[in-house]
Write a structure and sequence with these properties.
Helix content is 50%, strand content 20%. It has 141 residues and is an alpha+beta fold. The chain has a single domain, classed as Pantoate--beta-alanine Ligase, Chain: A,domain 2, CATH 3.30.1300. A 3-stranded antiparallel beta sheet has the order 1-2-3. Helix 1 runs antiparallel to helix 2.
């Protein structure tokens, strides 16, 4: 087969042009996947916080336990938050003991993008999750 001299090196040139673009696309896909993993970790931490807060005997204890649980859960999954907010809705603890109620825990975590994607990537992403759990019906006052 006879190849024209005009075609020599064209595959190398195409690869040189398309290579960086494909690598950038791959890096963006990996970063998006890492953001989703971090979002899932925040949801799991909120669920853990709600579960632990629902077993508390008072609202003050529920707030303390929820914050500790969320912090521990995020730490186990190697998620570092620049700003972590854990709030516990008090409506479940206003109900009389023996009355079914729920407690809601809201978690807001600002994660640096450099921790999730490519090191040195500027900015951060704020992840939020809200979970509810049934308050222990037989808690005492």
């Amino acid at each position: 087969m006879n190849r024209s001299l005009d075609d020599q090196g064209s595959a190398t040139l195409e690869l040189a042009i398309l290579g960086p673009g494909l690598l950038l696309l791959l890096a963006l896909v990996i970063a998006a996947g890492r953001v989703e993993v971090a979002s899932s970790a925040v949801e799991q931490a909120a669920a853990s916080g709600a579960r632990d807060a629902s077993l508390a005997r008072s609202l003050t204890q529920a707030r303390t336990v929820a914050r500790q649980s969320v912090t521990a859960s995020l730490g186990q999954q190697h998620i570092t938050c620049q700003g972590l907010t854990v709030s516990v809705a008090n409506s479940g603890f206003a109900a009389a003991p023996g009355t079914p109620a729920t407690v809601r825990v809201d978690v807001t975590c600002s994660v640096p993008l450099s921790d999730l994607g490519v090191p040195g990537l500027p900015g951060s992403r704020t992840l939020r999750a809200s979970m509810s759990s049934v308050v222990d019906t037989y808690r005492s006052r």
